[in-house]
DNA sequence: ACTTGACTCTATAGTCACTATAGACTTTAT
DNA sequence: ATAAAGTCTATAGTGACTATAGAGTCAAGT
């Protein structure tokens, strides 16, 4: 299949697919006579793997490491585990931050009665303090 | 005060301060004879306002709008409110996403017994599916 | 045979909010 | 007088894409 079909099947944009290839995350595809990229089942699976990692917010550099580890099936998976745990702690941290943000934003919204002028606006006041 | 002092007082890096100025978020400072930027109380307040907005993840373009609104105190603050509410809904959306991420990552971590090889690794398996 | 339109190619620039660097200039301390 | 610290501008890099320009390829219809 050509890049357009792979793009539709996976939901990755064409540019993103080419970008992943350039970054060494997808194996180099064959080409047609006219220099079009040609993909098979394998590329599809590689791309789904990357997509799944990205949906977990795993940065591309770590995705790359995971792919390399996948290709060394006899090694210990301790580093895979470490990577995922690190990702988990990042997510936890970000969630705590967002909780605080949410509380403050809610407080701000509740301090605003829309009939106000900017001058009297509780939101601007709280941003100012 | 010079830029280094402003940087220390506010915790913004020197480059960030210059960046905010270039983007039109800070008013243009006076200069010494030797072309050094000179700041006073006003710049300090402007910068604190920006910092506070940024700590709420409000994008710079919206911070700029808020600053403009601040300078029109007689107008209605409805658009201030809309902006903050939009920000709140973004935060909510992101929190829902992170919750789902967290659940999946935890599931993955629990599927890994560190003695495994990569081949048998539950994490890699779940990323593959 | 020719043309149209859809698809693909590479290379490059833009996004956001900074951070980092190079090379020159100014000020402060010894 | 000199060294160190601070500041200046301009430029490039970050991450993970997205968007664009300009050229080439291919299949279908006239």
From TrEMBL, chains A, B:
Domain (HTH merR-type): give its ranges: 1-69
Membrane-traversing stretches: none
Enumerate the InterPro entries for this protein.
CadR-PbrR, DNA-bd_dom_put_sf, MerR-type_HTH_dom, MerR_fam
Spell out the SMART domains in the cross-references: HTH_MERR
Residue ranges that the Swiss-Prot or TrEMBL entry lists as coiled coil: 81-115
Q: Which UniProt keywords apply?
A: Coiled coil, DNA-binding
- By its UniProt entry, which CDD domains does this protein fall under? HTH_CadR-PbrR
Domain of life of the source: Bacteria
Question: Does this entry carry the keyword Coiled coil?
Answer: yes
Keyword flag Transcription? no
- Which Pfam family, giving just one, matches this sequence? MerR_1
Under the heading PANTHER family, the entry gives: HTH-TYPE TRANSCRIPTIONAL REGULATOR ZNTR, REDOX-CYCLING DRUG-SENSING TRANSCRIPTIONAL ACTIVATOR SOXR
Q: Which NCBIfam families match?
A: CadR-PbrR
What is the name of this protein? Transcriptional regulator
Q: What is the lineage of its organism?
A: Bacteria, Pseudomonadati, Pseudomonadota, Gammaproteobacteria, Alteromonadales
């Amino acid at each position: 299949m050509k890049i357009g079909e792979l793009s539709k099947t996976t939901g990755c944009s064409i540019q993103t697919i080419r970008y992943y290839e350039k970054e060494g995350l997808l194996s180099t595809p064959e080409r047609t006579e006219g220099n079009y990229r040609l993909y098979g089942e394998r590329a599809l699976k590689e791309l789904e793997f990357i997509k799944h990692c990205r949906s977990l917010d795993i940065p591309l550099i770590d995705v790359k490491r995971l792919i390399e580890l996948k290709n060394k099936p006899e090694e210990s998976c301790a580093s895979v585990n470490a990577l995922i745990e690190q990702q988990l702690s990042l997510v936890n941290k970000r969630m705590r931050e967002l909780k605080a943000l949410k509380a403050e934003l809610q407080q701000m919204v509740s301090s605003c009665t829309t009939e106000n002028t900017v001058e009297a606006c509780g939101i601007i006041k709280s941003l100012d303090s």
